[in-house]
């Protein structure tokens, strides 16, 4: 087990370095510099332009910039935003709970609906239910998030008035930040109705963000279940006269879940990507929207730091899934 | 039992009434983005100014709400010396700064605050110059560092600005967002507490709304300042709900989640007009969209070529297809809402025969090939540059001019378009900062701007003389004459094709009363009320 762990962790280090290099290089490969963008149509005289670039440390050779960036990371400093002049780490952790709250709700919705849907489709293979579930999941998977979000807003918020249009809570509430999670903070606050408002605001963005992972989980569950249902031990259980629900839940699902768990772990990356669009549509103040703004403003430290932290999160979740996978299925850790 | 029932009903009614009254005085503004920070001296974006300078702070001079007319602000009166180089401001007495949990002012606004405000931005050795990163883009962009010679405190309520040269737009400059007055006492207190940067994070001004808090990228909350020198605002609370997507802002307005929204999608305007719950206000924007030829390179150094191309632009087609009706053809380089706009100039009409003739006279009977630069972003003066370029491309093809449309990333576009050797003509525009013609003509067409903000790379001495004279003349009538003449010279020389002035739309809930569109693009909520 120890060597398995060591192998897994040793892969993380080059991945982490690769991410630092990629984020550093990619943002600089995009044309345009932050000073020009800041000056806008007015422009800026070359002397002042050079002075500002120097103040931002962007006048140095790229290798020096990269070295400075790396050494700062190892001192726990991700730099200061060129726009807001706030430390990147502070900005990230101010906004991260909003993304985490949304992502958690989305993954719960995706698992709670996707898993049973996949099981039902597998059990009723070739029947109308199967075609419906698979058709819907294909639609969900191919759905352009921006369009889907606006459609839901127009229907449920504008036409029917069931849910609020956007934001985390009604603009009339002012909830003090304790945990950063609006549901918890609203519960703790004295403002009457704040929790219900926060909950209502969470519904549509969670559904939109859950759509793609839900489709993936449903499809993965179905195919894993189909494979397991063909196994001899399942056939034997059925031949012994065990009730079908028992066969599915106790014998088949447990084994089918292994690849599904891996897929759920991989969805963290998908959720992060989806969060950029979902947060923009629903004015959700999370890191997705923050990263998008930072890219548009060429705020190098925010983009580098933000992507690095998101990448660390994805690496960490996948490492955990990998380790759990090894714990659940000993054959895997022995083979590797 | 009956009494208890009556009591319950009465309580419920009182609670409902109280709730309605409270909600009725909170205006929610669906702003288009997050402020970059909370001190306007560091930034150049309108989004940041709305959240700070427009509602929390005030300058020595003001723009009368909804106009570009200057009125007294923190200075109740001023005198200008005959040589135009000294401005003496008498400050208003009894003006209070906001209080917060961490700072309570002990004195009223006075000359120390004015001097602190300007010296912080101006002098590199000022203790606050480098605090919060110290980059004062507007202060430097308006050449204030070169313009100021000395600021003198005459007494507690009199300040004298000594300039290095006469500058007629000085009063307009002082009404701009970078020149809002900050509290020197607050700065001292924060310096002593070891947190000098706090003054830039938690704004304390003298304006009608006091900052209450910011939930990053989500909400900004203000309360009406009870001790505001003009009297408390009719609203009790003001909330900015940050909503970057225009379609979502519109959905929120329709759902009653906000009262005012900026920058609607042009495609939504017809539906907004038809909505009985929405009041779609509109006003001509203080902007101009133009096409700048590079007057330094062939064939655009030839006046006849520039005139020929101008005559081959179908502006009415552009207004219909690109602005979807929300714009007006431009003939002058300044918008009609600015004083000194010359009504008498004659525009180059759409006339392909004349265009072809002029091209032949210029030595290009079969036309030529050129690049046309289209901006990659939507701006108030040009909602779709690519589409605009395509309309021009089609019309110019009829006179034999073959156009290749090029575009770059926005920052790169701005940078490359400044190059004196740039190939082709550039689509760009400008939104005024202070309602002064100098802010358009000198910035965009002055000789100092060549290789910078003057994308036409045009330095024409007769025009330059007129605008430089207008800058030093104090008499507004005299200035008007000079700028009118400058516009005639501009039309004769055609360094640009003037394309359009856009119309600014501001949809608001019918509950909002007394809202006025700011021609300078700001969103000001003092004086606004809710029904």
Mean pLDDT of chain B: 91
Outline type of chain A:
globular
Major β-sheet profile of chain A: none
Beta-strand proportion of chain B: 15-25%
Mean pLDDT of chain A: 87
Order of helices and strands of chain A: HHHHHHHHHHHHHH
> How large is the radius of gyration of chain B?
26 Å
What's a quick, concise take on this entry?
Chain A has 336 residues and is an all-alpha fold. Chain A contains 14 helices and no strands.
Task: Explain how this protein is built.
The complex is a heterodimer of chains A (336) and B (531). Chain A is an all-alpha fold and 336 residues long. Chain A contains 14 helices and no strands. Chain A has helices at 2-29, 34-39, 46-55, 62-74, 88-123, 128-142, 145-159, 182-188, 194-229, 232-239, 244-281, 287-296, 300-328, 330-335. Chain A is globular, with a radius of gyration of 24 Å. The model of chain A has no long low-confidence stretch (mean pLDDT 87). By secondary structure, chain B is α+β, with helices and mostly antiparallel strands. Chain B is 31% helix and 20% strand. Chain B has helices spanning 2-24, 46-51, 111-122, 137-141, 144-147, 170-174, 184-192, 198-201, 246-254, 269-274, 303-311, 315-321, 352-361, 385-397, 410-416, 438-445, 461-472, 476-493, and strands at 26-29, 61-63, 70-72, 75-80, 86-91, 148-155, 158-163, 209-215, 219-224, 237-241, 278-284, 287-292, 327-329, 369-373, 402-406, 425-431, 496-509, 512-513, 529-530. In chain B, the strands form five sheets. In chain B, strands 11, 12, 13, 14, 15, 16 and 17 form a seven-stranded mixed beta sheet that branches. In chain B, strands 1-10-9-8 form a four-stranded mixed beta sheet. In chain B, strand 8 (209-215) and strand 9 (219-224) form a beta hairpin. In chain B, helix 16 runs antiparallel to helix 17 (461-472). The longest helix of chain B is centred in the first third of the chain and has 23 residues, at 2-24. In chain B, 49% of the residues are buried. Mean pLDDT of chain B is 91; it is low at 7-22. Chains A and B meet through helix 2, helix 3, helix 5, helix 7 and helix 12 of A and helix 4, strand 8, helix 9, helix 15 and strand 16 of B.
């Amino acid at each position: 087990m120890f060597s398995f762990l060591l192998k897994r962790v040793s892969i993380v280090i080059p991945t982490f370095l690769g991410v630092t290099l990629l984020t550093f290089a990619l943002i600089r490969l995009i044309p345009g510099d932050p000073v020009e963008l800041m000056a806008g149509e007015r422009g800026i005289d070359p002397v002042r332009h050079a002075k500002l670039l120097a103040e931002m440390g962007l006048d140095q050779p790229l290798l020096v910039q990269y070295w400075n960036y790396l050494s700062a990371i190892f001192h726990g400093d991700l730099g200061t935003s060129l726009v807001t002049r706030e430390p990147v780490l502070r900005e990230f952790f101010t906004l991260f709970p909003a993304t985490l709250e949304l992502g958690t709700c989305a993954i719960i919705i995706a698992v709670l609906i996707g898993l049973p849907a996949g099981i039902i489709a597998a059990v009723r293979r070739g029947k109308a239910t199967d075609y419906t579930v698979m058709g819907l999941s294909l639609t969900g998977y191919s759905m352009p998030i921006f369009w889907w979000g606006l459609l839901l807003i127009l229907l449920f918020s504008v036409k029917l008035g069931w849910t609020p249009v956007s934001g985390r809570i009604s603009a009339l509430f002012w909830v003090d930040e304790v945990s950063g999670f609006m549901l918890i903070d609203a519960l703790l606050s004295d403002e009457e109705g704040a929790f219900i408002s926060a909950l209502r605001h969470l519904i549509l963005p969670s559904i939109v963000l859950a759509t793609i992972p839900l489709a993936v989980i449903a499809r993965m569950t179905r195919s894993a279940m189909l494979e397991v249902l063909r196994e001899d031990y399942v056939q034997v259980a059925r031949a012994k006269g065990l009730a079908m629900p028992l066969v599915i839940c106790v014998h088949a699902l447990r084994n089918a879940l292994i690849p599904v768990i891996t897929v759920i772990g991989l969805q963290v990356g998908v959720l992060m990507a989806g969060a950029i669009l979902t947060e923009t549509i629903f004015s959700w103040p999370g890191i997705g929207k923050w990263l998008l703004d930072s890219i548009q403003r060429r705020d190098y430290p925010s983009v580098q730091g933000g992507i690095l932290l998101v990448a660390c999160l994805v690496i960490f979740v996948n490492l955990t899934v990998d380790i759990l996978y090894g714990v659940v299925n000993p054959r895997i850790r022995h083979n590797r | 039992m009956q009494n208890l029932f009556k009591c319950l009903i009465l309580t419920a009614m009182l609670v409902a009434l109280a709730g309605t009254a409270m909600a009725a005085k909170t205006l929610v503004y669906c702003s288009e983005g997050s402020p970059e920070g909370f001190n306007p001296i560091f930034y150049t974006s309108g989004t940041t100014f709305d959240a700070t300078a427009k509602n929390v702070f005030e300058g020595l001079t003001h723009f009368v709400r909804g106009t570009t007319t200057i009125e007294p602000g923190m200075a109740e009166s001023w005198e200008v010396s005959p040589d135009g180089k000294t401005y003496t401001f008498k400050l208003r007495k009894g003006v209070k700064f906001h209080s917060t949990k961490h700072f309570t002012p002990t004195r009223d606004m006075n000359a120390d605050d004015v001097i602190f405000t300007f010296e912080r931005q101006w002098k590199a050795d000022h203790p606050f110059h480098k605090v919060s990163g110290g980059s004062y883009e507007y202060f430097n962009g308006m050449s204030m560092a070169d313009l100021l010679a000395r600021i003198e405190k005459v007494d507690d309520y009199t300040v004298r600005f000594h300039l290095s040269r006469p500058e007629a737009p000085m009063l307009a400059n002082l009404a701009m967002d970078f020149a809002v007055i900050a509290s020197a006492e607050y700065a001292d207190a924060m310096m002593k507490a070891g947190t000098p940067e706090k003054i830039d994070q938690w704004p304390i001004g003298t304006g009608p709304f006091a900052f209450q808090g910011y939930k990053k990228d989500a909400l900004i909350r203000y309360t009406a300042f009870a001790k505001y020198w003009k009297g408390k605002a009719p609203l009790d609370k003001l909330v900015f709900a940050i909503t970057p997507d225009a379609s979502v802002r519109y959905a929120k307005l329709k759902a009653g989640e906000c009262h005012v929204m900026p920058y609607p999608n042009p495609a939504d305007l017809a539906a907004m007009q038809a909505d009985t719950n929405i009041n779609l206000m509109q006003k001509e924007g203080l902007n101009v969209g133009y096409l700048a030829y590079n007057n330094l390179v062939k064939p655009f150094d030839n006046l006849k070529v520039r005139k020929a191309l101008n005559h081959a632009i179908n502006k009415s087609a552009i207004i219909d297809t690109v602005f979807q009706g929300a714009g007006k053809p431009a003939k002058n380089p300044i918008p009609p809402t600015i004083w000194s706009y010359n009504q008498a100039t004659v525009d180059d009409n759409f006339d392909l025969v004349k265009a072809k003739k002029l091209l032949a006279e210029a030595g290009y009977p079969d036309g030529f090939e050129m690049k046309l630069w289209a901006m990659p972003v939507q701006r108030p003066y040009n909602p779709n540059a690519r589409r605009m370029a395509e309309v021009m491309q089609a019309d110019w093809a009829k006179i034999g001019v073959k156009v290749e449309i090029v575009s770059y990333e926005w920052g790169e576009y701005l940078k490359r378009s400044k190059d004196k050797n740039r190939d082709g003509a550039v689509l760009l525009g400008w939104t005024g900062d202070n309602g002064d013609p100098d802010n358009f003509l000198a910035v965009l067409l002055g000789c100092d701007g060549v290789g910078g903000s003057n994308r036409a790379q045009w330095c024409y001495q007769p025009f330059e003389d007129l605008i430089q004279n207008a800058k030093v003349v104090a008499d507004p009538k005299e200035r008007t004459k000079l700028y009118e003449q400058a516009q005639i010279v501009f039309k004769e020389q055609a360094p640009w094709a003037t394309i359009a002035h856009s119309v600014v739309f501001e949809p608001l809930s019918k509950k909002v009363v007394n809202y006025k569109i700011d021609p300078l693009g700001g969103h000001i909520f003092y004086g606004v009320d809710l029904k």
